Amino acid sequence: MLSHEAQANNNLKVIFIPLSSKSHMMPLVDMARLFSMHGVDTTIVATADNAEIFQKSIDRDFSHGQSIKTHVLEFPTEQVKLPVGNETNTDTPRNLTPKIHEDFVIVQKQIENYLLGLGELEVDCIVSDLCYHGTAEAATKLGIRRIVFTPASVISRCAELWFEQHTAHTEVESDSNKFTIVGFPHKLEMTRSQLPCWMRKPTMFGRIMKVLNDSSRRSYGAVFNSFHSLEGAYEEHYKNAFGTKCWSLGPVSSWVNQDVSDKAERGHKKVEEEEDEDGDLFKWLNSKKENSVIYVCFGSVNKLSTSQLIEIAHALEASSHDFIWVVRKNNDKEGEDEGFMEEFEKRVKESNKGYLIWGWAPQLLILENKAIGAIVTHCGWSTATESINIGLPMVTWPLFADQFFNEKMLVDVLKIGVSVGAKEWRNYDEFGSEVVKRNEIEKAIRLVMENGKEAEEMRLRAKSLSDDAKKAILVGGSSHANLTLLIEELKSLKLQRLNANKPN
C-alpha cells in the first residue's frame, strides 16, 4: 500500500473548470493539458457541446499516456429555452444573451454540486475561471485550494483592481480627456471613453466584478497565460494588490499545441468540407513572399458594422499589401450596399491580393506561416500572446473587455504595436457608434509592414520577445519553473492535508 507521501507525489488530482466562451475556454484547456503533460491527474469540466471543441486534443493526450479526461455536464437547454448549439457566446443572437446569463447561473450550480459530491481523495485543487466565483467556497468546504484563472493579461487585472480604489478617471472634465493610472510600473494614460462601462459609472456588472475580485482574494492564487519577460513587473504588482500568489505559465498554446492537428483544430469543431477550404488557403498563402501578408482578425465574438467593414476593405486595398481577413457575418441592416463585401471578395480574389475567411480560421497555422508579416488585432490576450510567440508586430484595434488595457501593454510598454486610434469601448454584442476611417487603418498598416526605422525597431523588439517566449517554456525558463514550483507546492499541500487527516 502506498504511503501518504507516495500518494501525494504520484496522484495529484486537479480539476479545471473553463467558462463557456472560447476566449476563456481554450487557454484554460491548454493549461489543463499542460498540467497533465507534467504528471498531474487532470479533469476538465464542460458541457457536451463545448467539450466537442477540444475533445480530439484530449483524446490524443490520453492516447499518449497522459492522465486527462473530460467530465461532461448537462447543458440546461430546455430549462432556459435556448436553441441547441448556443452553449458559447460566439454566435448567440443578441436577443438570446439574457438566456446565456440564466444558463450560467444553472451551470455554476451544477459545477458546485459536482465538486461537493466528490470524495476526499478525488480532488486536490480546483483551477476555475474567474467568473465561477462559487468554486472558491466549494474549495473551502472540501478543504482544498482554488486557483483562479483569467484569460486576460496581468496588467488588465491590476487595472481592474486599481479602478476599485482610485478616482482619477472621475476627475477629468470629459470622456475624451486623458488621465494617468498612478502607481503602475509604467506611466499609462487613457481616456474615460476607453474604459469598460462599469468603470465609468455604477452598473450591475460592476457589482458582479467586485464579487469576482473578492473571490479572487479568497483563492490561493492566480494563473496567467503570460511569461516573466512579458509582464514580470505586473506580476509583482498583482501579488501586492490582491494579496495572493500568482504564476505566469505561458505562452500555453505554443507549449501544448505542437501537433499539427492540435493547431489546425484548436477552438473549432472541424467539419469535413472545411479541409478543402484550408488547402486552398495555405496554397494561396504559400505562394506569397516572406513577411508580405498582413493577417486581419477581430476574434470570435466581436461584431463590426457594415460601414466599418467597408472602411477596412478600402484600407486593405489601398495599403498595397496582400492580406488575409477573417470576417464574421454581422446581420447588420444599415441600408448600406449588402453586396459590397461579396463584390470586394470577388475583386481581391481575381487580383490575387486578398483572401477572405468567413467565420473560424486556423489561426495558429496562419500566424506561423512565413508569409505573415504582421497582424491587425482586437488585442484579445490569447491572440496577442500567440502573435508575440511568433514575433509579429501588431496593428492594435481594441473593442471591448480588457482590450484597451492590453493595447497599452502592446503599444506603450512593449512598443511592438501601432494603434489605429480606437477611442470607444463597447459591449461585445454591440456595433458601437465609432467608425475608424480608412486612412487611419491604412496608415497603421503601412507603418508596421513597410521599411523604415520605426518599423524595423518594432520588428526587432517583437523578435526579441518571441525568443523570450520560446525560452520561457523550456527547462530552466520562467514559465517552466513556475509550473514545476506550483505542482510541487500543490503536492506538499496535499501531503499536509493527508497527514492532518491521518488517524493518530
Automatic annotation (TrEMBL):
Name of protein: Uncharacterized protein
Lineage: Eukaryota, Viridiplantae, Streptophyta, Embryophyta, Tracheophyta
